[in-house]
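new request in #modeling-help
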Amino acid sequence: MLAILDYKAGNQTSVRRALDHLGIPCVITADPAVIAGAHGVIFPGVGAAGQAMNELLTTGLDKVLKDQVQAGKPLLGICVGCQIMLDYSQENDTRALGIVPGECRLFNAAWTEEDGTPIRVPHMGWNSIVQKRPCELLKGIEPEAEFYFVHSYYPAPPESYVIATCTYGEEFCAIHGGPGLWAVQFHPEKSGRPGLALLRNFYAYCKEASRA
Amino acid sequence: MLSKRIIPCLDVRNGRLTKGVKFEGNVDIGDPVETARRYYEQGADEIVFYDITASHEDRGIFLDVVERVASEIFIPFSVGGGINTVEDMRAVLVAGAEKVSVNSGAVKNPDIISQGAAAFGSQAIVVGMDVKQVQKSEAIPSGYEIVIHGGRKFMGMDAIEWARTCEALGAGELCVNSIDADGTKDGYELTLTRMIADAVSIPVIASGGAGSPAHMYDAITKGGATAALIASIVHYGQYTIPDLKRQISGMGAKLRMVW
């Protein structure tokens, strides 16, 4: 079973619908006991980093998340969830969770696309990723697959944490983390077949990890 | 590099898919959930649903369509038609849409854009603009005027000015629909699309007039649009989405080709 963290700042229901479709048992919850009993945790998010952090701090879910990571529970952060796993976000000048080092930065509107046109912010739509190191999440997914992004800020962890990059004006980090602790800037729950495959891979990893 | 998006638009009336020309004479052409699923499987990059009745009693039927779509289709979709308040926005977002499109509701009350952006984030707020070409004048210097009520009511607002206002109020995206081109299959209104794409820095969707892959290619190149909205061209089976994508990609545009 996967726990989808309920902190009123996420797209919890979209994630739940995708998992339901895949036949993966899941529950949207803020209950620490339920989270502790799950095979893995999905940490979703849309909206602003400041608001998301406030919600986590007032509910104490920041501590619950950190404890789970400490205990080795597999975690998948999505979009704002991916961003606030870092130390800091420029959005609302937000001190974030610090589970992974690095910060989150605003896209520079002076950047241009390969064809010379200025980038529009937010980065909204489908884009491809380039895998930099092996990752269970991407198993079986075609390298040409594209994912759905919608964000104005991008994660910038140290290079050793970067699993895959995307290019929008300049190259930025699209997936960071390592085995059992992943964060994706795009929305797998809205990225069609490749996105669903990524969620299926995450669940397979969680089940395997709980057996080990 | 970001791919340009191909977005089929489904007009829904009483829970059924319909299509008209220049906003009139709508006929029943199928089940919206079935059709949306077919487009999703064929590689549509996003889907737009428009509730063209939006009368109070039919709203429930429409929200039910939105919920069914959200359970079966795993790409983003937006919902418009009859959105006049933040509560209207909340209802469709809770039902499972990623984005909500405001049109005449925003023309009558522009604050709804900033209220929606504050409540749900700019990425969730699309402003749909219906535009007609008119004589250039002091009030309408661009020669493109905002209209509502399916093109029947002229608002005395310049389309370029309104686009800038929408961006400043926090819209995340603009969908520019030419009433003159709508349903004609003669091609998008490229001059209008380009003027608006140049006036704002948020994404712009071209709408109205798609009749061929070349029209769509023009919209996302010459028109400066980041996405092309289509309707009749796919609803009646003239093209499938893979046909369109192959041809437009063959002309040199970057599209999502694996799905």
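bot summary: The longest strand of chain A covers residues 170-178.
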